[in-house]
Amino acid sequence: MSIRGLSIIGIGISQTDANASHAQSFRAFDPTQNRELEPVFYNATNDDVEKAALLAREAFAITKKLSGAQKARFLRAIADGLTGAKAELVEWSNRETALPIARLEGELVRTTSQLRLFADLVEEGSWVQARIDASDPTRTPLPKPDLRSMLRPIGPVVVFGASNFPLAFSVAGGDTAAALAAGCPTIVKAHAAHPATSEIVGQVIAQAARNCEMPAGIFSLLFDSGHEIGMALVKHPYVKAVGFTGSRRGGLALMQAAAARPEPIPVFAEMSSINPIFITSGALKERGSAIAKGLHGAVTQGVGQFCTNPGLVLLPKGEAGDEFLKEFADLMQSTPQGTMLTRGIRDAYAQGVKQRAKTASVTTHTHTEAAGNRAGAALFETSLAQLLGNPQLSEEVFGPSTLVARYGDVYDLVLVATSLEGQLTATLQITEAELPEYGDLLDILEEKAGRVLFNGFPTGVEVGHAMVHGGPFPATSDGQSTSVGTRAILRFVRPVCFQNFPEAALPSELQTLNPLGVHRLVEGR
Amino acid sequence: MSIRGLSIIGIGISQTDANASHAQSFRAFDPTQNRELEPVFYNATNDDVEKAALLAREAFAITKKLSGAQKARFLRAIADGLTGAKAELVEWSNRETALPIARLEGELVRTTSQLRLFADLVEEGSWVQARIDASDPTRTPLPKPDLRSMLRPIGPVVVFGASNFPLAFSVAGGDTAAALAAGCPTIVKAHAAHPATSEIVGQVIAQAARNCEMPAGIFSLLFDSGHEIGMALVKHPYVKAVGFTGSRRGGLALMQAAAARPEPIPVFAEMSSINPIFITSGALKERGSAIAKGLHGAVTQGVGQFCTNPGLVLLPKGEAGDEFLKEFADLMQSTPQGTMLTRGIRDAYAQGVKQRAKTASVTTHTHTEAAGNRAGAALFETSLAQLLGNPQLSEEVFGPSTLVARYGDVYDLVLVATSLEGQLTATLQITEAELPEYGDLLDILEEKAGRVLFNGFPTGVEVGHAMVHGGPFPATSDGQSTSVGTRAILRFVRPVCFQNFPEAALPSELQTLNPLGVHRLVEGR
Questions:
Q1: Of A264, A451, A474, which has the smallest distance from its Cβ to B497's Cβ?
Q2: Coil, strand or helix: which one is A223?
Q3: How many CB atoms lie within 10 A of CB A123?
Q4: What is the pLDDT of residues B76-114, one digit of tens each?
């Protein structure tokens, strides 16, 4: 597949060279080699935004009526196309992100599985939550109408590719899969850190869409090295929802722009989380070494570039805790340096670690300077009082760094949990025997996080029906949603009620004979 | 029941007289008699807000763990209490709102039915959308964890009483019923136009809560004649969601305040809708007179003070349309004047009607000046070009007023529908034979409204499982929600996932043996 460096404006129409030649350009960057890559990518223009939005608006008239079977075929065609492009995708994404080949191969499987999971979901069809309340013409004082409602697609969706998952959270990632499954045309703003990977995936989607005879505007992919095009997309009146995975600052900017529109729209931004781990003395005693090893893996794998990376560890005071900390510190110290995704991320990490090391009452256990775009693991320790008193210590430092605080008893943990902002995950490393004592803590963790773990580690986000990858602000912009798992489709739909409609004018899911055989709530049952 | 004029801060604790004596006060107003009523009501203070919020926060630790059966018992106790206070409630609400006795009796039944519907819902329990994905310890490269998720209450909720439904959308109205059913402590800001009605309902809820041994902070009721207390509630860090029914300006102010919080929270505001009615020539021919009578009823009943009041009617050009308009205008002209809910609403209506009458290219068919707090029906006509060109003509005039525009063909209707803002409802008065021709129009109406009606009229909002009383902005602040029907509970919950939890620590709905027998999605089935 040739990389052209041009935005894809609708599945049949590329940004013209003439148009692109007027635009600013940028290049992909190889963080391992620390050098720019060929070819040049041209920033999309406001004109491209207009075209993509108009095409999406037009396509919505068709995509909202696609059957589950049609959408499933399209999603599976994308998955097949991605599998077919595996060699190129893994090569390019490895070059652009420095993520290891094995990880990228796994991420590709995750991406295609995710597309297939949504294909299965919409093919089966019950996800639309069809509800039927029958009429009662004899009711007094007024006859009761026939009411039928179901979830319908919200309209064109803008998705922002994420830097840390070039496949699974980018052009054909979870947001795109959920939006297309819902029946929403999708405009992706490619992450500028992996444009060639993005273009390959974009071409795969466009080809799949052509093969499945989808309308031109069902998919567009826009390049931009800055923020202008993304903002223009979020502000465009034809756009009805936004999916984003990235920094708190970036997510906040999108939330504000969306709220300030003449017609505000929902922004589903997955932003910032420190994923606290609470370790009990019982757990330490039972399996301290195993926890140290597991925690080390969770903090450092992928150079710590996961949204579920644990950035705060609560460890008991006393000897067992001292021993654990020594073992954990040794593991952190001996961690090989790794190349980070981008220079920007590496600089932000270096800056964050430096600042933490300088913070009063913070002890540095490990912190190595690294050359180029590489980063080393960092381990800090602070007091409970300092943790509770200094909000900066509860901020995310994106990378292989974590902060340990020592506690005395379960009341300390309740205090810490209460002071936390919203989190994607919260983990209790505990024994079953201790559970009754930690009930209050569990209660608070449930309020603070989208996913609460009993033992285990939060990295590794299963794509399934029960997953919640969400959580109260600032973990996400909308703590009532998830960006992973089949529930994620609910972000891009709205309920619509049809009153006294004739059968022929009803969507199949609401017709009396239930031709699709979906599960429905009829008279509340 | 004695009306004390004091806020209820937690179910056992009233605002103290000492506290109240420092506060500003206001009186209820009888719009029919045009005079102030006894007793005095004291505005709540910021101190009261603090207390109510703290109590609610404390209560949440208990309310979030209430079983469906416990919540059902509480909701039914409120319903019973309201029925028991029927005489007082109807008398006071009639005095404070000028709504007719029969309407208020009906509204009380609607209010208690709504509470009982939510009681049934939470007692049955399946509404929590429990999902279980089983573990697979043998999976490679990584074992699959056990994941179980369900909807959990979001936290303390603030509800604003609405002026136009002193019972069904006020202190124990739909928002409160949904929030309590979800397990959320609820703080109601009483609407200052019916404080005595609000206090009676508040006392009923407090008594029911005491009888059911609920925690003190599960319910508070705050009075304020201004906006300060409502704003303080929305900004309070312990408050996690807001329910509101009222004006676009009021809803926007709450949306902005909630978005500007350090932790933004969702605001579910039901605001502004003109509920367009599209009448086809076939429908006119088949049943023109019936439509004229039905439309007249929908526009003028309750002095037009419904959010689903039709404010725009698209009528075919030509003789049949002329005849319809004449008949409809006669009905509008002969409509008795009625007393509006408040002086403010009456003044806004008079102002809105006056402005519309002065608008270029608007013909006034009926428009009578009315004395005191009374208002007469108003009927205006405009051209399609004017309607499309002047956004003011698509704004809501709250009261018994509507605007007719004449159209040539279905393309005109598509144009109008496309130009509309989001609506609670959109209605097609049509014959089945015409349906194929109007497919494009139906498609657009589905995008614009929460509920689309085939024939019928939009006033009369059934409380059931399939109802959607919502719609894209500005009909509501969140077009993905409904404020009426059992789906309304979804506004006050968030999904939480439990990973690898031992049975004993799981909510009953997620335990393997399913002791409550709720419907669950297990492995996607």
A1: A451
A2: coil
A3: 18
A4: 999 999 999 999 999 999 999 999 999 999 999 999 999
By percentage, how much of chain B surpasses pLDDT 70? 98
Helix (H, G, I), strand (E, B) or coil at A13: coil
Q: In whole angstroms, what is the distance from residue A61 CA to residue A508 CA?
A: 17
Distance from CA of A247 to the nearest CA of B (A): 16
Mutate to test the interface with B, among A494, A501, A509, A511 (most CBs of B within 10 A): A494
Neighbouring C-beta atoms of residue A17, cutoff 10 Å: 11
Residues 225-264 of A with CB under 8 A from B: 255-256, 259, 263-264
Q: What pLDDT score does B13 carry? A: 65
Strands B130-133 and B186-189 come out as: unpaired
Q: What is the mean pLDDT of residues B167-182?
A: 98
- Quick check: B57 pLDDT over 90? yes
**Assigned token pair, B351:** 């102002």
d(CA A3, CA B3): 76
Report yes or no: A453 at the B interface, CB cutoff 8 Å: yes
Confidence check: pLDDT of B294 > 80: yes
* pLDDT (mean) for B315-326: 97
List the catalytic residues of B.
270, 307
- Residue A472 forms contact with B (CB below 8 Å): yes
**Per-residue pLDDT at A369:** 82
How many DSSP H helices and E strands does chain A contain? 15, 20
Nearest CB among A121, A447, A452 relative to B498 is that of A452
Q: Which of B132, B443, B454 sits opposite A502 (nearest CB)?
A: B454
Smallest CA-to-CA distance from A429 within A255, A289, A245 is with A289
The dihedral of CA A435, A439, A445, A447: what is its sign? positive
- Chain B CB contacts of A64 under 8 Å are 443, 447
pLDDT of residue A344: 95
Residue A174: how many other CB atoms lie within 10 Å: 30
> Cβ contact (<8 Å) for B456 and A500?
yes
Return d(Cα A111, Cα A76) in angstroms, integer.
Answer: 11
Tokens of A514: 């239930």
Partner residue facing A142 (CB), from B132, B460, B470: B460
Structural contact between residues A259 and A269, judged by C-beta atoms closer than 8 angstroms? no
Mean per-residue pLDDT, A202-221: 98
- Summarised one tens digit per residue, pLDDT across range B249-292 is 999 999 999 999 999 999 999 998 999 999 999 999 999 999 99
Q: pLDDT for A444-478, tens place per residue? A: 999 999 999 999 999 989 999 999 999 999 999 99
ipTM of the complex: 0.97
pTM equals 0.97
**Using only C-alpha atoms, what is the Rg of chain B?**
25
Catalytic, A184? Answer: no
The span from the CA of A449 to the CA of A446, in Å, is 6
Of the candidates A96, A107, A123, A270, the residue annotated as catalytic is: A270
* A493 contact B CB<8A: yes
- For residue B260, give Cα distances in angstroms to B71, B182, B229, B236, B244: 33, 26, 17, 12, 18
Q: Enumerate the residues of chain A whose CB falls inside 8 A of the CB of residue B451.
A: 496-499
Give me the mean pLDDT over the A361-386 stretch: 94
Q: Is A499 on the interface with B (CB under 8 A)?
A: yes
pLDDT of B12 reads 77
At residue A142, the pLDDT reads 86
Pairing state between β B147-153 and B493-499? antiparallel
Instruction: Retrieve residue B329's tokens.
Output: 């205008």
Structural domains for chain A: 17-271+478-493 (3.40.605.10), 277-454 (3.40.309.10)
Give phi and psi for B415, each to the nearest 5. -60, -50
